[in-house]
Amino acid sequence: MTLEVENLTQFFAYGDQGHHAAHDLARSPKLSASTITHIVRASTADSLVEAGRELLNTPITNVFADAWLTRRDLKRFADPNAYPPGQVNEYPLVAHEIALSRTPQVELVINGAPTGLMFDFELKLALEIKSVILKIQGGRIIGARVSDFRGSGSFSCADITLAERKTETFRLPGAVNFSPGVTIP
Does pLDDT of 74 surpass 90? Predict the structure, then answer.
């Protein structure tokens, strides 16, 4: 099966769950009437759901690249004497997992004025990849062929799950290109 996912919003099918998530957030104790007046409560929940959508606007390929750059065994490809800049090298990675955890905060702003009310989001993502062949040139990852993978994750705000997903095994359509490339530290 081919996974048509460009970013984390699509991975979680977040746009499909937004209305339900806003309703749950509007009823959350974190949006209590003592904190936010009833008039702006639903609007605040809608705004938080939209802020969540923006936070998830990370390309899935960036998640892959960020994880691969932490591998110590890739550092050798940054040496131009051992791997000349014009040479394209392929480097296979066997079965591995990629984990991502983020906890961004969003401040509620009303009519352009900060309110001081902060809302904590939590993103957890786990991807299991069977194998990858990285294309490396000039100390940069310039592409990858990713085999089958599957994933799971959750996205929440104010202790309310906004999106959750567990996938079957998928394959990305075609090769992944990182233009102009991701620099190996």
Answer: yes
